[in-house]
Amino acid sequence: MRWSWRIGTFFGIGVFLHGTFLLLLSALVLLLFLAGGGLLEVMSGFLFVVLAFLCVVLHEFGHALMARRFGVRTRDITLYPIGGIARLERIPRNPHQEFWIALAGPAVNIAIALVLLMVFGWNQSFVWDLDGRLHGSLPVRLLTVNAVLAAFNLLPAFPMDGGRVLRAYLAERMDYLRATRLAATIGQGMAFLFGFVGLVHNPMLLFVAFFVYAGAAEEANAVQAEMLFEGVPVRDAMMTQFAVLAPGDPLEHAVQLLLGGAQHDFPVLEGERVVGVLSRTALINALSVGGLEAIVSTVMAPAPEGVTPAESLRTAYQRMDDEQIVTLPVLEYERLTGLLTPENLTEYVMVRTALAGVKRPAGR
User: Fold this and answer.
1) Which residue in 54, 138, 259, 283 is a FRET match for 97, CA 20 to 30 A apart?
2) Among 89, 75, 84, 87, which Cα is nearest to 17's?
3) Same domain, yes or no, for 178 and 268?
4) Which position among 60, 98, 219, 226 bears the catalytic label?
5) Range of 9's domain?
6) How crowded is the C-beta side of 226, counted as CA atoms within 13 Å?
7) Active-site residue 270, yes or no?
């Protein structure tokens, strides 16, 4: 969400504009001027891009509102130069639900194209330049863009919409993790295809290829982690050796702890009660302002509500992801007994994955 600005809230969902999107609009205006376009042509091109991305927003709201029907909240929608992203709080494990959520976005684009076709007809010509630019009347260009958006998003390139439809189809026939891995492999294969086409035709596809490849790997890893966390209590993965700070400690003490070990974030205790967390980022930022003499209590963030050692590790992981928690206290009878951090969760996954490949002797 860095470098993003809220442009409105609709249906209770915040819509953000990423700063790179403004670069796209600026580049468009500059290119039109350099090509000799007049004010009218520049305004027409600007309007077309804005309306095209409005269709992208409606596409993302298709996903968000369908997800709401299944009880899944959408955190926000952000516009980037390559499209929009609706951040759902979770992807349903129910293949039926994922299927309809994935299809809802392209269905919106198809509906927009049909409305434009009924209102304006298809009696106006349009052409594609060799450089990929679409020419024609504004309604025809918007109709074509929506048709292309629907068709492109339905390609089986996980984690795009078509890839999620494929994963839902596979998950009806095999376990969820295997379905995710297979869909991710197919998605990464599609990413290589996008990259090749991008090299010889449209450079924008290179960015799409990168995000598809990285997104497929990230989602496959996330699903694997959740499967490993299934049925595991927090105590099995929590960090039990850690340093703590007091509210009145100077930052110099925090610096010594940071440099003296591998711990990045520090719980702040007042007696036995956790009152805050001092992150590495907050510590470094504070040093540039207040120096080593500044006090921990003036820099720390409020402590998130803790979990108990017996709670589900999967539930704790989902909460850390939803609330963007970097250090989650583990409390037993109101006393701090452990910490959960992204680093130690990653290490837990690595250990479990490695042990899963070990052949154990019979009876062990």
Assistant:
1) 54
2) 84
3) no
4) 60
5) 4-229
6) 18
7) no
